[in-house]
Amino acid sequence: MSSGKEAKQRLRREMLAIRRSLSAEEIKKGSEAIAAYFCAWPKYRAADTVLFFLSMADEPQTAALIEDAWRAGKKVAVPLMGEVYGVMEAAVLDGWDGLVTGRLGLKMPDPAKTRRIAPADIGLVVVPGVAFDRTGRRLGMGAGYYDRFLPQASSACLMGLAWSAQIVPEVPAEEHDVRMDYLLTETGFQPLSGG
Questions:
Q1: Phi-psi domain of 2 (left: phi exceeds 0; alpha: psi -120 through 50; beta: other)
Q2: CA-based Rg of the chain, rounded to a whole angstrom?
Q3: b/e for 130-144, b at 16 or more Cβ within 10 A?
Q4: 138-139 and 49-51: which strand pairing?
Q5: Other Cβ atoms within 10 Å of 23 Cβ, number
Q6: Taking 50 as the threshold, does the pLDDT of residue 5 lie above it?
Q7: Which residues lie across from 79 on neighbouring strands?
Q8: Which domains does the chain have, with CATH numbers?
Q9: Which residues touch 23 (CB under 8 Å, ≥6 apart)?
């Protein structure tokens, strides 16, 4: 195993332990703060089609963001994990009914009933992560879903969404890793530098 892979796995373990240690109250308060920053953000206000993720229990909760987008008349999409491991599509989400449990235990629309959205039609992608650094590099869960999907959404603005404790000095990066344009945590938008 390469040292890069080991470094990623070590960082992933550390960050997931931090995330899992958060109380329900911390998650609720932090998610409310994130929603306030996000819903007032001009890039979000200007986007017609937004790809959100459906949060796991210890992640920043996206339900309020999604509901705001519906109220604003935006087209809402969420990841649809396909038959092929590591490959995802964007699926329209019109409401909370009809979600099924897909790969990795994640909620998603029923693949048999949902409409797909072409990645090129997405204006803003809200990207989950295990860790981010201030150059916009991201560490995911390791399956590569977003690594394969994001290059297809070439005109989209990419916003990493995480807790402030998940912002680290450096994420081990590989050539194919796509950098975020923005990072949002419960303390607000985080300044990004080149590098």
A1: beta
A2: 16
A3: bbbbbebbbbbeeee
A4: unpaired
A5: 8
A6: yes
A7: 90
A8: 3-190 (3.40.50.10420)
A9: none
